[in-house]
Design brief:
By secondary structure, the protein is α/β, with parallel strands linked by helices. The protein contains 11 helices and 12 strands. Strand 7 and strand 8 form a beta hairpin. It is globular. The structure holds flavin-adenine dinucleotide.
């Protein structure tokens, strides 16, 4: 079922959803199940599964030299989507990237999604490759998420890369999610510019937005206001990540280009150990969720990042 249909059916009630990441290559799916098992009793409406870009790895050749190879270290997005969908009977949303994929490869992946009964796609550009400063589009691939949205939407109308197929018997139309940034995407020259690009994604066929994580709700409220003023009228789902370890004070701003509220920074700085930090993170997140529920958000979307005990505590307060 499409994410937007879940939202419509809920008639204003806030839904629950999670984002999970595939295991490192070579590891089984068991640990992933162990992490999400305790979260399933709260009946999420959908689960996103991330896709990782390929990266350079360096292998010792035994003669003192290193060999550089390229590899995707967390493959298996679609397989995990299919497994979860059938194990838990929950809708899954594979993340599909521009970076690292040709348009042909993307088309094959979308066709697989159709056969697997996957109705939703999160369309993303992806970041620059590790160690590279700027995002370089893959040869023969999409440059921006908006191009990917167009490709997905075209396929929905029977327009494949080799030509149009009329009267086909597939129901090709996907519900498309895209990313939004309450604190602006790092490469965008201004918030207004970024919103213009977001609006373009929606005009080209995106059905809903999921935001980058934020720890200050005011950033989300302001973003929704600006988006509505800019004419973006699709659901804007807040992405939520509870702070869990002291290292997050540096890591979250560095990786996700977000600001942390001063009160939270002070509270975490005073913690003697990571157990105390986790508790502060849980309390902060519960307060965030209360305010977001009062605001009437369509869903609370939790970035689990392979950990579930703190999220379980937070979610159990509301669902
Ligand atoms: P775009 O929408 O293409 O925007 C990228 C930049 O280009 C922005 O600055 C925008 O303002 C600008 N821009 C957009 N369109 C145009 C245009 N037509 N002309 C000129 N400028 C333009 N990354 C992963 O690798 N894997 C994941 O699974 C993943 N999941 C994510 C989930 C969510 C909810 C979010 C918020 C992010 C996720 N990311 C993921 C990170 C994302 O790939 C990066 O933030 C990436 O840098 C931008 O992706 P985008 O889809 O927002 O790009």
């Amino acid at each position: 079922m499409k994410v937007t249909d879940h939202i419509k059916e809920a008639k204003g009630k806030t839904l629950l959803s999670y984002e999970i990441i595939p295991p490192q290559k070579g590891h089984g799916i068991g640990d992933l199940y162990k992490n999400i098992d305790p979260l399933m009793e709260f009946k999420p409406s959908f689960i996103d599964v991330t896709t990782s870009r390929e990266e350079y790895i360096y292998l010792e050749k035994g003669n003192g030299l290193m060999e550089r190879k390229i590899s995707r270290m967390r493959p298996g997005t679609l397989g995990i989507c299919a497994s979860i969908q059938y194990k838990y009977n929950v809708d899954t949303v594979p993340h599909v990237l521009c970076g690292g994929f040709t348009k042909e490869e993307t088309e094959y992946l979308l066709v697989d999604c159709l056969y697997l009964g996957i109705d939703n796609i999160m369309a993303l550009r992806g970041d620059a490759m590790k160690g590279e400063k700027y995002f370089e589009p893959t040869k023969g691939g999409n440059r921006y998420a908006s191009d990917l949205v167009t490709q997905i939407n075209d396929l929905g109308k029977g327009k494949f890369l080799h030509g149009e197929i009329s009267g086909n018997d597939l129901n090709n139309s996907f519900c498309i999610g895209v990313a939004g940034y309450p604190e602006k995407h790092l490469e965008a020259p201004s918030m207004q510019y970024d919103l213009k690009m977001l609006k373009q994604k929606v005009e080209l066929g995106a059905d809903y937005v999921v935001t980058q994580m934020f720890l200050d709700n005011q950033k989300y409220f302001e973003f929704v206001k600006l988006a509505r003023e800019a004419g973006i009228d699709v659901p804007i789902i807040p992405g939520i990540k509870p702070l869990a370890v002291k290292k997050h004070l540096q890591l979250l701003p560095q990786v996700f280009k977000i600001d942390l509220p001063e009160d939270l920074v002070n509270a975490v700085s005073q913690c003697k150990n990571n157990e105390a930090v986790k508790q502060v993170g849980i309390e902060w997140c519960v307060q965030q969720c209360k305010e977001l529920l009062d605001f009437g958000v369509p869903a609370l979307h939790f970035y689990t990042m392979g950990k579930s005990d703190n999220i379980q505590k937070i979610v159990s307060e509301f669902f």
